Amino acid sequence: MAAHRNFRAIWGKFCALIMLGSMMTACVSADGPRIVPRPPADRPVSSPPPSQTTMPAPPPRTSTPPRSAGSIDPALQQFIFEEWRKFPGKTGVAVLRIDGTGLVGQRLTDLFPQQSVSKTWVALTVLDQVDQGKLSLNQNVRITPDDVAVFYQPLGDRVTREGVVNESIARLLELAITSSDNTANDNLLRVAGGPDAVRAFIGKHGLGQIRFGPGERLLQSGIAGMEWRQEYSVGRRFYAARDAVPYDRRKAALDAYLANPVDGASPEAIANALARLARGELLSASSTRLMLSLMEQVKSGPNRLKAGVPAGWRFGHKTGTGQILPPVSTGYNDIGIMTAPDGTRYAVVVMMADTTASVPERMQFMQSISRATANLHQP
């Protein structure tokens, strides 16, 4: 009997050891979560190593913090990160819920070249002066060949043909915002008091990390490693002069601009400024309506953010496009305000400082951000 009791005791200890081993094995199951290292913040990963070419699926909704009413769905941040990390070059994204809470994105506080996005601040400065009675929308502006700018400028071509053109401030605002006409913008800048007036408007309203450059002519010639001459405003003379600049000099000038853009702005600051515009905090009610209406009439960039906005939503925006020094494109931007059918508004900002992606790839990236914003919207 004693031998039998000893056998039962030994057998019980053996079974307990087997059960403990099984429990330990379950704790390190191969089905447990894998930790995938986040890429460095200073450069998105464009070609992940073969072992990580397939990213793990986003965590299930039950693992994310509960979403409060009137906020941004946490899944939008995850989506933006997944798209951003695959896109080549330095890119910034911001999505801010204007009517509610929440700001998501990547490289939110870095400075990106604005290019024609900066026309937004010129228009706001002019409308602020209209609100103060310093300017009038009906006021005519005399434009001569000495006032013609560079690059896209149908108004400048008309001045070159006719010699002198008179246009109202209202018409110049329309041309500068809806068509991104550089001559219209530079002449609005002139009547408003120049770059210092725009900087004063930005400072007065505390818009944060938004710089304003010297105007189109000086900005674009400086980026190309040139000094501006008014003769460059005619035809394709600017392009011919730029082609004559040695490649090394052009690259050095472009690299310096990208490293510290004189017209730089952060995605977060732009998103906040758009939100304040939408809420009527920057201009009078009538000037706010006019500016938002002009942004909804923009003709440039129909295949950027706008192409991802679904039917039933409203969208107003302003694009910007910089110079190209193959294989790099610079300052490819779009900023806007999306309005859902229920009236909820989002400020959406996508800025590309430099990229080797093709134009269709850039457009698709922008569309993915606006489309995801709409798809993940909840009242």
From TrEMBL:
Q: Signal among the record's keywords? A: yes
Q: Which Pfam families match?
A: Beta-lactamase2
PANTHER family per record: BETA-LACTAMASE, BETA-LACTAMASE-TYPE TRANSPEPTIDASE FOLD CONTAINING PROTEIN
Q: Give the span(s) annotated as Disordered.
A: 34-70
Domain Beta-lactamase class A catalytic per the UniProt entry, residue ranges? 95-352
Which species?
Sphingorhabdus arenilitoris
Which top EC class is given? hydrolase
Q: What is this protein called?
A: beta-lactamase
State the EC number(s).
3.5.2.6
N-terminal signal peptide: 1-30
**Regions of compositional bias (Pro residues) in chain numbering:** 46-63
**Molecular function via GO:** hydrolase activity
Q: Which UniProt keywords apply?
A: Hydrolase, Signal
